[in-house]
Amino acid sequence: MQQLLESLTQIGHKTTYNANAIVFFENEKAERLFLLLRGKVRLYRSKTEIYNKETRYKEYTIHTLCAPNFIAEMPFFMESHYPANAQCVEQSEIISITLQAFKKHLQNSEFCLLFITSLCQKIRILESYITTQNQNLQTRFLHFLNTHQNILPTLTQKHIAQHLNTNPESLSRLIKSYKNKGLISTNKGKIIIQDYALLYTYLSIQESHETP
């Protein structure tokens, strides 16, 4: 795997992005494939809404990718447009690869397997995103804790609120509620799961309530 990543570094252009930097915009022509070597990248869509006669700009987070990971392989492979915006959550190193360089690398069976695996992962991400759109905030929060256990110590509450498409105040109230129940604790703003059995119980109860 490491050898493959090094070979991709040679055929692409490596760039260091600062936190909050935009890698590409929604509807931009997908002319490059991106490989995240270090850091995290948030994929989100933006929408303008009218609320009480006021126009508001709102962002809907689809997923946050952690290194190493391909970014935007589907639109790139189909030569279409990026379906979402990509923004660095923290300082990140990203390789951009042109279509010509990509096609030459298709002769590498290890690369093809890695690319297909990544495509399958993106399908699972999309399925998960579609499912969570019909869930309430409590269920989305519990599901997030369950599926992001390994990286919770690296995530700020602001980032989690973005991922759940809610405001920090609502998330703060939810965190306080589950802290009082003994499910989680916090350390320097980071969430720590205290009782995994309790997490699975709460998640099962919430999902059963939302099942038609």
TrEMBL record:
GO MF, any single term: DNA binding
GO biological process, one term: regulation of DNA-templated transcription
Pfam families registered for this protein in UniProt: cNMP_binding (PF00027), HTH_Crp_2 (PF13545)
Domain HTH crp-type residues, every copy: 135-197
Keywords for the protein's UniProt record, in alphabetical order: DNA-binding, Transcription, Transcription regulation
Domain Cyclic nucleotide-binding: 1-106
Record flagged with keyword Transcription: yes
Superkingdom of source: Bacteria
Keyword match Cytoplasm: no
Name used for this protein in its record: Crp/Fnr family transcriptional regulator
Provenance organism: Helicobacter aurati
The organism's taxonomic lineage, starting at the top: Bacteria, Pseudomonadati, Campylobacterota, Epsilonproteobacteria, Campylobacterales
